[in-house]
Amino acid sequence: MTRVRLDAATVTVPVDGAAGHRTRTVLGPVDLLLTEARVSVIGANGSGKSTLLRLLNGLVAPSSGAVSVDGLDTVRHGARVRRRVAFAFTDPLSQLVMPTGREDVELSLRRLHRSRAERRLAAEAVLERFGLSALADQSVHDLSGGERQLMALAVVLAVEPELLVLDEPTTLLDRRNTLRLRALLEDLPQSLVVATHDLDLALHADRTLVVDAGRIVFDGPPAEAVRHYVTLADQP
Q: Most buried in the list 109, 143, 155, 191, measured by CB within 10 Å?
């Protein structure tokens, strides 16, 4: 399993208009060692969940402290980390940059397959694996929300990362597509870290983190974590 370590990782941002270059801490300090196959992250909007996830593949660099994946520092070894850690955004259109899903999958495979013919064959295998072959040549803008989300996952998983990080993957989905996505995630061989407001999805984990005001306020079994979060959220 992938080993993710955060050592006193803190993220600060400038305070707009503040004199003296003041900063505000949006996350941390966080000390974590993640080795479980399935980790869920829950918390209110603005709590720091997304910032925490973006630390894991170097999309955000810690302002202080360090983050590493299998011993690779996310700042010093960013390219190597991102080959191991794939990131799926809430809105799949942030990930689908080409006109069709097939072109997006082929684009993600450029590093692995230099030959266009090899890329086409590899992309077809990926699309078939996810049941997306029939949608491969449609405009991504013509796909449903669930189809786009599955296509975006096919794109990031095409390169066979070791860890998949998902930021609120069910936010834009109806219940049918949420259940479809959940079933897909359960069958993946990759380790997963998932930030979600879907508490049923959060329960399908080995370990759950509760984030509040930039700090991890609970770390433990999913059912206990959900109860802690509900109690926290119900406070006036």
A: 155
CATH number for the domain harbouring residue 24: 3.40.50.300
Catalogue the long-range contacts made by 35-38 (C-beta closer than 8 Å, 24 or more residues apart). 35/1, 35/2, 35/3, 35/4, 36/1, 36/191, 36/205, 36/206, 36/207, 37/1, 37/191, 37/192, 37/206, 38/191, 38/192, 38/194, 38/204, 38/205, 38/206, 38/207
State which residues form the domain around 56. 4-234
**Number of domains into which the chain is organized:** 1
Token pair belonging to 105: 């999958």
Beta partners for residue 68, in sequence order? 5, 73
* Planar angle of CA 118, 122, 126, nearest 5 degrees: 170
**pLDDT tens-digit map of 190-206:** 999 999 999 999 999 99
Instruction: Report which residue type is found at 48.
Output: G
Per residue in 34-85, pLDDT tens? 999 999 999 999 999 999 999 999 999 999 999 999 999 999 999 999 999 9
